[in-house]
Amino acid sequence: MGVIRFQNVGKIFGPRGSGFEALKDINLEIGDKEFVAIVGPSGCGKTTCLRMVAGFENATDGVVSVDGTPIKRPGPDRAVVFQQFALFPWKSVYDNIDLGLRNLNVSSSERAQRIDAILNLMNLTQYAKHFPHQLSGGMQQRVAIARAYVLDPDVLLMDEPFGALDAQTRVVMQEELVRLARKNPRTVLFITHAVEEAVYLADRVAIMTRAPGRIKEVLDVASVRNAEDWDSHEKIEDVMDLESFVHLRTHIWRSLREEKAAQHA
Amino acid sequence: MKYESVYIITDSLGRRGRVPRRMSIGLATILIVCVLWLAMTTLFGIVPSGRFPSPAETWSALVHVSGRGYGGGDLTLHVYNSLRLVVMGFLFAIATGVPLGLLMGWSRKAEAFINPIFLIIRPIPPLAWIPLAILWLGLGDAAKIMVIWFSAFVPSVINTFAGVRNIDRPVLEAAYMLGMPKFRFVTEVLVPGASPMIFTGLRLSLQASWTTLVAAELVGAFYGIGRVLNVAQQDLYPGMILVGMIAVAILGWGTTRVLGMAEARALRWNTAALAAKG
Ligand SMILES: Nc1ncnc2c1ncn2[C@@H]1O[C@H](COP(=O)(O)OP(=O)(O)O)[C@@H](O)[C@H]1O
Ligand SMILES: [Mg+2]
Q1: How confident is residue B123, by pLDDT bands cut at 50, 70 and 90?
Q2: Looking at the predicted structure, is the pLDDT value of residue B244 above 80?
Q3: Who contacts B168 (Cβ-Cβ below 8 Å, separation ≥6)?
Q4: Hey, whose CA ends up nearest to atom 14 of ligand 1?
Q5: Alpha-carbon span A114 to B200, nearest angstrom
Q6: Residue partners of B23: CB distance under 8 A and separation at least 6
Q7: Chain B hits for A87, Cβ within 8 Å
Q8: CATH code, B51-277
Q9: How large is the ipTM?
Q10: Strand A204-208 relative to strand A215-220: parallel, antiparallel, unpaired?
Q11: Pick from A245, A122, A240, A100: which is nearest to A181 by CA?
């Protein structure tokens, strides 16, 4: 299981009253094995939402829970993929992926088996002995995704995981994530400011308002995807050409532009 | 013209030939210094032998201390004693300093408690502890180990502390996310994460160890290189003074070299990281 629930969640950085109100009245439920993307203008509190689910930050109002249990601290049941990769530079690719499994006291034969499988799935087998810095950004992010996926977590949290990658690598990673997510579905909370990425990857897209961030609108992408059979197209550019895709994308664009305009007004 | 020469130096092929060339330049420099030394003292007598020893005088002092012995023992005994005390004092200092630095880096509370003590003790030059150490512990090994500890402890604590604080925050958060048991967190995240700075601290600690040891032996010792230097100064024996100085230089270089090899081994991942950052 892995149902994430935000109930009337607010977050104030600093003292109540004089502090900075980053989030207000967030209500959102992400179902088991559902892939939800959050988009919104920068500084609206997307990262803060994710960090509260991860257990790095506490809500100052309301409750953030997974399967009904309020979140107290970080843990391997909620694996995080960081924008800056955050691999352990002193550990090889293999050891980076292995560490979480060792902490979970998985037997060594099972660990070897699971790591080999994920290395294979992410096309990393030949880099197992490399140190992270010997790899390109795209490769490093693959390792970070493998490190999270190998834990078989209830919940995957990704904060602009492809934000630091160049456009080509980004597309490859998006296609691979779709492949991985369809093959091995997890509850995913995915943050991005790239609208196309959100529409391509997610079952639902939540649009946030500028600070203090609230959920402005939640779009159901999955029903359109299934109705129009997006998954029959292998390449991302073919999906992006579909009328139904363009329609959703444009809708989100408008909504975000309203927020940006209001921000600058 | 100018650009061309810059280009050739940074060229990757040109680089390959540079390492042996650098070594031969280094050897040539040493040779030139030796020739100048011979010229200034023996050949032209510009520097009188009472001021600075000639190569021949230095050699005979070396033969003297290695054979008959000088200042209470032969060279092996002096070297052995100095080296032993430096290694013991250094190991003792880092075995206490590194864990304390880790603790202070890890816990703000520990930092708040311990930092004031440092602020008081740090301005005192380590050498100023020598009289007190001798008063407490006499002229034997214990006093020297204590002063080495005082001098070598501080750099290892401070650099370890800074090393922990320098670990990227997302990397620490990744560790929390993976649910690390405490001991494993220390050994597999804090220590390796801080290790580039820890080794910087160790190098400074080692240098400080030699400085304080020689100073402490100069003040009072039964054996050791500092003792040789002290007696040679009283005997007005410049050749022996130079032998002592060269012995300390070689020992300092050798121990630094051993530490450097350990560092290169432990930080292999970091050379990759530094190369990636350019
Ligand atoms: N630890 C913090 N202390 C104070 N303010 C913070 C902190 N973290 C984030 N903020 C502020 O909260 C707002 C939302 O931040 P963030 O969640 O990172 O936005 P986003 O990810 O949507 O760009 C920003 O204005 C940011 O400056
Ligand atoms: Mg963010």
Answers
A1: confident
A2: yes
A3: A84, A86
A4: A45
A5: 39
A6: none
A7: 171, 174
A8: 1.10.3720.10
A9: 0.91
A10: antiparallel
A11: A122
The DSSP secondary-structure symbol of A82 reads B
Residue A6 neighbours by CB under 8 Å, 6+ apart:
A26, A27, A28, A29, A49, A62, A63, A64
Q: Give the per-residue pLDDT at B119.
A: 86
Nearest C-alpha to atom 16 of ligand 1 is from which residue? A45
Nearest in space to A205 (alpha carbons), one of A251, A140, A149:
A251
Whole-number Å distance between alpha carbons of B235 and A42: 77
CB contact under 8 A, B173 and A87: no
Q: Quick check: A214 and A24 in contact, CB under 8 A?
A: yes
Neighbours of B154 (CB within 10 A): 21
Sheet of A78-81: strands edge to edge? A78-81, A155-159, A187-191, A35-39, A204-208, A215-220
Residues 6+ apart with CB under 8 A from B226: B82, B213, B214, B215, B216, B217, B218, B244
Rounded CA-CA distance A122/B120 in Å is 55
Rounded to whole angstroms, how far apart are CA atoms A104 and B95? 31
Helical residues (DSSP H) of chain B, grouped into ranges: 2-10, 12-16, 18-38, 55-66, 75-106, 108-121, 130-137, 141-166, 169-177, 182-185, 191-219, 225-234, 238-266, 268-277
Neighbours of B85 (CB within 10 A): 25
Tokens at residue A189, please? 């909370």
pLDDT at B249 over 80: yes
Nearest to B269 among A54, A82, A90 (CB): A90
Q: What is the pLDDT of residues B103-119, one digit of tens each?
A: 999 999 999 998 888 88
Q: What is the pLDDT of residues A190-245, one digit of tens each?
A: 999 889 999 999 999 999 998 888 999 999 999 999 998 888 888 888 999 999 99
What is the average per-residue pLDDT within A91-117? Answer: 96
Say how far apart CA B139 and CA B218 lie, in whole Å. 11
pLDDT, tens digit, for every residue of A115-150?
Answer: 999 999 888 999 999 999 999 988 999 999 999 999
Q: Is the pLDDT of residue A6 over 90?
A: yes
Ligand 1 first shell, C-beta below 6 A: A 13, 20, 22, 40, 42-48, 211
